[in-house]
Amino acid sequence: MSMNWRNISLFALVALLIIGTGMFQSWNLALAILNMGLVSAIMALGVNMQWGYAGLFNVGIMGFIALGGLGVVVTSMPPVSAAWSAAGRELVASLLLGLAVIILAVFSYKRMSPGKLRTLVLIGILVVGFFAYRAVFDPAVQKIEAINPAATGYLGGLGLPVLLAWPVGGALAAVAAWAIGKTALGLRSDYLAIATLGISEILVAMLKNEDWLARGVKNVNGLPRPVPYEISLQQRDSFVAWAQNWGADPVTASSIVVKLGYAGLFLVVLLILIAASEAALRSPWGRMMRAIRDNEVAAEAMGKDVTRRHLQVFVLGSAVVGLAGAMMTTLDGQLTPASYQPLRYTFLVWVMVIVGGSGNNWGAVLGGFVIWFFWVQVEPMGQALMGFITLGMEDGSALKAHLLDSAAHMRLLTMGLIMLLVLRFSPRGLIPEK
Amino acid sequence: MDVINAIVALLNFVIIPATAYGSQLALGALGVTLIYGILRFSNFAHGDTMAFGTMATILITWGLQSMGISFGVLPTALLALPFGIAITALLVLGTDKIVYGYYRRVKAKPIVLVMASIGVMFVLNGVVRLIIGPGDQRFADGERFIINARAFREWSGLEEGLAFKTTQGITIVTAAIVVAALFWFLNRTRTGKSMRAYSDNEDLALLSGINPERVVMITWIIVAALATIAGVLYGLDKSFKPFTYFQLLLPIFASAIVGGLGSPLGAIAGGFVIAFSEVFVTYAWKKVVTYLAPESLEPSGLLQLLGTDYKFAVSFAILVIVLLFRPTGLFKGKSV
């Protein structure tokens, strides 16, 4: 980005907003906003790769975020050895069987000549394969879920350090994106949108229902953390002395230090990603991507393999989103599949990209921070507004109670308004593409 | 006797619910497909337009109920429906004037209109939740059943009962009437013909003196009516919850695309294809098979292909299959 004063002052403004939150509300809240802002910025970067570089309309961001969260569970939770010994082998066998069926189906479809026979064989393979898979899969799942369902009831993870889970989350998302892209990318843009919307709902439904994988709606709590626990800091004498030296309450200080630890880790990831994506955008590859986006036909005539490039950038962008999803789950310390909602995770990230400036990495990052800040702060603002509106009403009136209750829904309304206003009056976003 | 029992069970748990659901999806998909055909973008706000229309209808239903007006054996919501449609029509005309009209004038790319519709979706979502709250609302009244399960059992002497809810009956009948009226309008009236002409070839239509603004306006009004009717029927049949309506977007889009975007006939076919396959795949077939199979072969499991939570997977799988093998849908749709 040309480091011009306008952009620097925009970022400074965001910093000021967060610092203001710290001074007038609490530093805990300010740091919480900063942390999720960093995660949101990375999500927006990923989406910006797909939309801004290549013009791919992906409405399945929620699914990739959820897959990133799954990555944390399967990497960092300790394995449940009882479950593995009960039916681990059978479960893996059934999954391999399912994979084999799909490969066989694709293979037979590609190798046989078109005709009724091919269709029949394809359907035959899929139907027989499905029932064979279920016959092995169902009993294995029952055995696994029967083992101490209140605490585990799933296979557990690999017990590796949680930082490793971030790239694993990205990789999971990348694999899913490859499979989706392979089928849907050759199609028209709005079909891709619907396809990704569908797949994200399916991924979340899977997380909710496949208890053997990540306990479903029973949630996985107590994920390992890359930073120390507040309580262990408070028990350390040196920390308490250090905090009192600063004139701070050890409890508050410990939670602030922990949050700062997360912020540091996230900032490192964000800086690496933004450096890499800026370099990529300026490289011949970046020029090619923009050329494809601006005129597919011309790019194709120049010998560029448009579908292949699209697949590449789709996988890359989704991997970044998955990485951010893994980071978010680590920050939360738990995986709660029921909390994945498309408005919050898919469409809000879209608002970030549009508002920030599609096609510009810094814009996407800025959008991530700004929108996340307002997403958090609109609620108290809405409360204040409703309090003001209802000031003249008598206490206990149904309308007053209703208005005060529904202040929480001001968020969606505000996000929609912001998006519409930006689209209308500044369609290229806060920091436009050069 | 067992065969008849099996047929009754099939009717009760599969055919009737799927037909009702299919009618609701078809009406929703008709709205999506009309917008796609005339205004040339995929309207992501459609689910929330349905929610808004239903909300307006519910509020008026409550008003009517509090005044003591009812519709006899039929739900009061049917009386409120025309008012709900009028309010929703005003709303969508308003959004068109404020939001979409501008992008049409500057001839923005379709994807920009899709983005704008996402903004409208957010706003409508917020408005609906602000007014009626995010919770479940039931507003069906009147007679609950056309055919009652117990009465049917006593009448027929069968083991299996057949229940036919009033709301299901109303859904199917209303959908049939609305679809007939829509097709009559599109094929027989001057305005309908001008809409089809505009959809087929915009430039040619403009040259022959069709007023585009009028076409767009009428399209929005029809879409508002379709969305409200679909939403109210769905709400009567199940219940009204803003988030469910937002989620309906996926099966509705799947129906429209499977049938061929821009083709009204396709939207109806797509709606039924999606609804029937969803119900078929997520229904536990144990009951039906128990009646048909000899005792020795009685199934031990539920015989459910997929859990009900995976119903999205079904719409999605059909969507992918159709797109891979017939990219323009079952009935040749258009592609921008």
From TrEMBL, chain B:
This is Branched-chain amino acid ABC transporter permease. PANTHER family: BRANCHED-CHAIN AMINO ACID TRANSPORT SYSTEM PERMEASE PROTEIN LIVH, HIGH-AFFINITY BRANCHED-CHAIN AMINO ACID TRANSPORT SYSTEM PERMEASE PROTEIN LIVH. It comes from Maritimibacter dapengensis. Belongs to the binding-protein-dependent transport system permease family. LivHM subfamily. InterPro entries: ABC_transp_permease, BCAA_transport_permease. It is a multi-pass membrane protein. Keywords: Amino-acid transport, Cell inner membrane, Cell membrane, Membrane, Transmembrane, Transmembrane helix, Transport. CDD domains: TM_PBP1_LivH_like (cd06582). It is found in: Cell membrane. The chain crosses the membrane at residues 6-39, 51-73, 79-99, 111-132, 168-186, 215-236, 305-325. Coiled coil: none annotated. Its main location: membrane. It holds the Pfam family BPD_transp_2.
